[in-house]
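Encode chain A's predicted structure.
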Amino acid sequence: MLFERVDRVIAVVDDIEKAKDFFSDLLGWQFDDVIRDEAQQLAVVHAARHGFELGMPMSDRHPIAAMESKFLAENGPGLRAFVIKVSNLDDAVAHFRARGIEPVAINAIGTAREAFYNAKDTYGVFFILNEYPDPHPMTRIGMEAQPHKAE
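Encoded structure for chain A:
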């Protein structure tokens, strides 16, 4: 199956520690440690078994962090992306492309490859298609298990 499952939902926040504490208290969910990815200038934290991720741009020095900074500036903190795990990113990109939908960026983090799509092309939903072997490379366990490479 090309489109395997909903991988996670991402909220972009302006203070990741504060947001982590808020959602932990509100929902009673355990979050992983915050990971600060210097290469991509993002801080992320997962409540992995619940499919919820918080992300915070640390600067505008990487295209993905710049996209998230722009989102925060225009919209404030909030739900940002719907991430779909795919079995083959190249095939999934071709599937979207055949329907006239082009990625705005394709990125790699460790063993994960992601394609980002503009929400204006998909009824207001910011899609990220994500291909990776388990465990997820942006969890603490996944980062320890895999080498980290950013494109």
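The two ends are 27 Å apart (CA to CA).
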